[in-house]
Amino acid sequence: MFAYAFPLHGRKVDIFPFERHDITDTYVSWLNDPEVTKFSNQRFHEHNLESCIRYFDKFVKSNNLFLSVRRCDNGQAIGTMTVYFAHHHGTADVGILIGERTVWAMGYGQDAWSTMIDWLSCQEAIRKVTAGTLASNKGMINLMENSGMELEAVRKNQEIVEDKPVDVLYYAKWHAS
Ligand SMILES: CC(C)(COP(=O)(O)OP(=O)(O)OC[C@H]1O[C@@H](n2cnc3c(N)ncnc32)[C@H](O)[C@@H]1OP(=O)(O)O)[C@@H](O)C(=O)NCCC(=O)NCCS
Question: Disulfide check for 31: which of 38, 47, 96, 153 has CB 3.0–4.6 Å away?
């Protein structure tokens, strides 16, 4: 539905549709890196080229978006984003994974996130943009709050992380009027 609008251009990153040829050994290694997946349920799965192709194929057949995040300056792929639409409800739920750990804490994740949230919240068909994270994922909480999203709900002690229950936080931003 929105594929025509890509790539989106941020200050530090460009956001392209993720293509079949983006499934590289480097990409698979992000998904198998315990540090990258420590706040995600991906940590319970081992990934390989076949599992990544299956995941990619699900997006090809859907109206949801699977996106590649690339540095503007050198074109390096550093991560991915997903957007799941509920068209009947006018909502879009966003996720991000900056898999290239060497570029963490350099502002790339924030630029990708804010570029996407700003763009989605200007689309007439989208009433509300949503996202969620574990309360222990401080980086993700900063991304959401810095992009103008507000805390909407907390599921107390929802998931077990390192043997301890942790809250899951849900954030939202409404269509820009
Ligand atoms: C969370 C993630 C997207 C952050 O990306 P990043 O490029 O490292 O983040 P940025 O450099 O743009 O930083 C954005 C903000 O978060 C803060 N931040 C980033 N990582 C942080 C961390 N580990 N702890 C605390 N704050 C952190 C930065 O200080 C910055 O805040 P500020 O601008 O208010 O100072 C990235 O670490 C990642 O993809 N992690 C693995 C996957 C993941 O957890 N995805 C989310 C699942 S819900």
Answer: 47
pLDDT digits (tens, 9 = 90+) for 89-124: 999 999 999 999 999 999 999 999 999 999 999 999
Q: Please list every protein residue whose CB sits less than 6 Å from any atom of ligand 1.
A: 36, 39-40, 79, 96-98, 104-110, 133, 137-140, 142-143, 146
| 57, pLDDT greater than 80 | yes
Sheet bearing 77-86, strands edge to edge: 8-9, 13-17, 65-71, 77-86, 91-98, 128-134, 164-174, 150-161
Q: Which domains does the chain have, with CATH numbers?
A: 3-126 (3.40.630.30)
For 47, 112, 145, the CA distances from 150, given in Å and listed in that order, are: 33, 18, 6
Average confidence score pLDDT of the chain: 96
Instruction: Looking at the CA of residue 98, tell me the nearest atom of ligand 1.
Output: 39
Alpha carbon distance 119, 75 (integer Å):
21
Q: Tell me how far the alpha carbon of residue 66 lies from the centroid of ligand 1, in angstroms.
A: 20
Q: Is the pTM of this model over 0.70?
A: yes
For residue 33, the CA-to-ligand 1 centroid distance in Å is 16
